[in-house]
Amino acid sequence: MNTPLPTSVAALLEQQEGDRVLLVDDVPDNLSLLHDALDEHGYTVLAATSGEAALTRALQGRPDIVLLDAMMPGMDGFEVARRLKADPATAHIPIIFMTGLTETEHLVAALQAGGVDYVTKPLDPRAVLARMQVHLQGARQARQTRQALDAFGYASIAVRASSGRLLWQTPLARELLQLYFGTMAPTTPPLVLQWLRRCLEGMGSVGGANGASGAVGMGLQDSVSMPPAEPPRLTAELGARRLSFRLHHCIGGEDGPGPGGDWLIVMREVSDAAVIRSLGLSFNLTAREAEVLYWVVKGKINRDIGDILGASPATVKKHLERIHAKLGVETRTAAASMALTRAREIHPQWEL
């Protein structure tokens, strides 16, 4: 007769019903034993009996956690883990190895391949379930954070500062990075990576100063887990659209939190289309004239405005002459000043 699970573990299991578990083992008896235990506690179980099948199931089913047999014929568990971690679509999924090998080198190999934990065979379903909870809680919080950020128009990515690798991204982040930079995971846009490393260099200096002043319990790793102050943001522009990047916090890494760790970056896109429309309505401008005036406010010269709008500098100059007449001013500086004042009256939160 199985010993009942401790009350605390049972309560956690009840809270997490519905999580998807990918169970990978080439031995049917092992699959059956764990499948029944997981199903009893409300998990949705995806099963695979080979490394190739595991990779396919992971991409199709997007499990919340993977229980992975280390030793399998053909593609072993170590290679499966490496491939899952190399794919941005599955890199965030925690992997627990199931192994009968207890030698240190095998356990180290499991962790180096991307595993977060291991359980030894013969398997005790109670121990497996308890271990799963430790890692599912963190994974669930990260998933909920990503979903919430996307729902409110914020996109997020995780970047490993030491290697520059983009570890994961929300669907909205994928679209924005392709639109603004033409890059795809696991490549981090060079501009974003340079900005991240500059932020971390500055934060490292702050951490060193804290250590020198004798701050209690504040080492470098602790000081960079959360930015000590708001680091400068990065902004990328695409026409009248702007994408801002904000360094949020360190979410861990191969060696734990630190300057070379994995950092959550939150992005938000802002479009100035409403500002342009307001300028047009306020000064009785055509749509193109409002666009020209917007870029004048942004400090662009005629040649730059022409490049942005796909027009010649001479055409921009003609638009600007009509803008001056409608605003009753003689210089672009006066036009820009008047437009900026009006834009901020209508959109108090607007920033250049």
Explain how this protein is built.
The chain has 14 helices and ten strands. By secondary structure, the chain is an alpha/beta fold. It folds into three domains: 7-141, 3-Layer(aba) Sandwich (Rossmann fold); 153-271, Beta-Lactamase (2-Layer Sandwich), CATH 3.30.450; 273-346, Arc Repressor Mutant, subunit A, CATH 1.10.10.10. The strands form two sheets. It has a five-stranded parallel β-sheet with strand order 2-1-3-4-5, sandwiched between helices. A five-stranded antiparallel β-sheet has the order 7-6-10-9-8.
Topology:
Blueprint: H1 7-15, E1 20-24, H2 28-40, E2 44-48, H3 51-61, E3 65-69, H4 77-86, E4 95-99, H5 104-112, E5 117-120, H6 125-151, E6 154-160, E7 165-169, H7 171-181, H8 190-212, H9 220-225, E8 234-238, E9 241-252, E10 262-271, H10 273-283, H11 287-297, H12 302-309, H13 313-327, H14 332-346
Parallel strand pairs: 1-2, 1-3, 3-4, 4-5
Antiparallel strand pairs: 6-7, 6-10, 8-9, 9-10
Helix pairs in contact: 3-4, 10-11, 10-14, 11-13, 11-14, 12-13
Keywords:
352 residues; alpha/beta; Rossmann fold; Beta-Lactamase; five-stranded antiparallel sheet; elongated; disordered N terminus; WH-like_DNA-bd_sf
Strand order of the largest sheet: 2-1-3-4-5
Q: How does the major sheet shape up?
A: 5 strands, parallel
| SSE arrangement, N to C | HEHEHEHEHEHEEHHHEEEHHHHH
CA-based shape: elongated
β content, as a range?
A: 15-25%
CATH superfamily of the largest domain: Response regulator
- What is the correct CATH architecture of the largest domain? 3-Layer(aba) Sandwich
Low-confidence runs of at least 5 consecutive residues: 1-17, 205-224
- Number of E-type strands: 10
Strand-pairing-aware structural class: alpha/beta
**CATH third-tier fold name of the largest domain:** Rossmann fold
- Rounded to the nearest angstrom, the radius of gyration is 27 Å
Q: How many domains is the backbone divided into?
A: 3
Distance between the termini: 70 Å
Q: CATH class of the largest domain, please?
A: Alpha Beta
Mean pLDDT: 81
Q: Helical content, roughly?
A: 40-55%
